[in-house]
Amino acid sequence: MLTYTIRRLVLSVPTLLFISLAIFLLLELAPGDPMAQVPLTVPPEVKEKMREALGLGEPIPVRYYKWLVQFFWVEPQVLIDHLFDTKLAWHFAPVPADMSATLLNTLTEKGLIKETSAGLEMLVKDQRVISWQTRSPVMDIVVQRLPQTIWVVGTAYIVGILIALPIGIYSAYRQYSIFDQSGTFITMIGFSVPPFFTGPLLIVIFAVHLGWLPSVYDTIHVVTDWESFKFQFRQMILPVMVLALQTTAQISRYMRASMLDNLNQDYVRTARAKGLSEAVVVMVHVLRNSMIPVVTVIALGMPAIFGGAIITEVIFKVNGIGQLLITALFANDLPMVLTLTFIFAIMIVIFNLIADVLYGVLDPRIRYE
Fold this sequence. Notes:
- With about 375 residues, the protein is mainly alpha-helical.
- It has a domain at about 140-360: MetI-like fold (Orthogonal Bundle), CATH 1.10.3720.
- Helix content is about 70%, strand content about 5%.
- A hairpin with a 2-residue loop joins strand 2 (about 115) and strand 3 (about 120-125).
- The radius of gyration is 27 Å and the shape is elongated.
- It starts with a helix and ends in a 7-residue tail after the last helix.
């Protein structure tokens, strides 16, 4: 298993490089100009200097190579510097000729300037992936927005799984019962109705007409006591309901189908003939074998729920990764869009690997050579 995992991780590197190149080229071919939102009063020569500052005047291969170095080399070093207070993402560069004497003395006292054979050099930070829209490091913005997305999406996915598994198990055990038929009807609705419809519908019902829940997610809200926790719980209900609906519909159908397939197997009849209780037969023997394909679906569905969260975050004004991606698309912020979409691609590759490993763990008949 360890050998297989290492081999898959090694093979994922060229896969991710190809994906990043494809995303980069697609964004390059997309219409739009990052200078389109600059006021018309800005002179053309100033716009041209701004374009050069953003690196738009460089050839496409050079820009792609710089992004690769920044994403795979500089950003991990920045993370290590933040965690262990090191200086990996820093290097010495010549001191600008127009630097004032006061600033030069200040930096020298702090140990940021040293004298070499080439002259005075100052310690500067390596160039990171910079957002064209905010002029700040992309990963810093992602780290700021990520907790909100994980909080909402993670809760929705857990809730969806906890609801879907019992529904799928009981529906299969009581096949064609009223519960099974009702569950099938509800899951078909969950499959067919998209989040951009269920979101506004729930807002109209529970926020506008009934007034029970807030329609806008307060991102800056901080939980400090019981009252603030209750407000946080109330404002999470609607977006979690929207995301959990599709998760419940998908996983419960897979759980039902897998349980039905195993309930008719010979080993189940043998277990019953030995006198084992029905609870042991269903919840121990049948459930474990039935969970093999379901766990794969759960692992592969994690990146998909992040995709669904993009629409949900926009509807409920959740200041997370989804809303950040939409804002970057409208602003033609190429570094931001490229980085976010590539992070989603990394998640897909990682969760595919997790699904394969879990499949082998649950099914002892599978051996990875």
